[in-house]
Amino acid sequence: MAAKDMVDRITGWMEDTAEMQTESMLELGDAIRDELGSESSEQFIGTVKPALEQLYTVFETTREALTGGVAIITGEGGPETMPGGEGDVPAEDPAMEPVDDGTGEPGAEAPVDDEFGASEPATGGEEVADREKRESVERSRRLGNILSSEATSKKKS
């Protein structure tokens, strides 16, 4: 199916980009250092490395979207409706009308007691609220960082 081929091509580009971030970047950095000096090599790596990381992130997002699209056409999944979205509550629902609390102010609502005794929502903590990245992505980035730090420490020696 052509849609799955699109996902496969993006995946291939992701693999190529990851390889550029690790092996190719080290080899190219070494070659530039040998030919033009360590300052030029560091400037090159400092410019290209963030660009490759950004490219990889864009590929990740694109691949997730394409995978979701493939899931829709293969019947493996589909768009989920969010609560409160269109179609959840009819337009003429009387429960959505303003409540008269006796104060005479139009649209004033009666105070609502917390029947569950819940505490105030948390303001955040140590954990990151978004999804965790796949292990292979983190592993690839860690490997790239380790290899680039080793190359930097070898240059200083």
Beta-strand content:
under 5%
Number of strands: 0
Give the topology string: H per helix, E per strand: HHH
In DSSP terms, counting alpha (H) and pi (I) runs of 4 or more, how many helices? 3
Shape summary: flat
Q: What's the gyration radius in Å?
A: 27 Å
Mean pLDDT: 75
Helix content class: 55-70%
Sequence stretches where pLDDT stays below 50 over 5 or more residues: none
Distance between the termini: 53 Å
Task: Report the major sheet.
Answer: none
Structural class: mainly alpha
Region (Disordered): 73-157
Biased composition (Basic and acidic residues): 128-141
Biased composition (Acidic residues): 89-103
How is this structure best described in words?
The chain is mainly α and 157 residues long. The chain has a domain of 99 residues. The chain contains 3 helices and no strands. The mean pLDDT is 75.
Q: What's a concise summary of this model?
A:
With 157 residues, this protein is mainly alpha-helical. The protein contains three helices and no strands. Helix 1 packs antiparallel against helix 2.
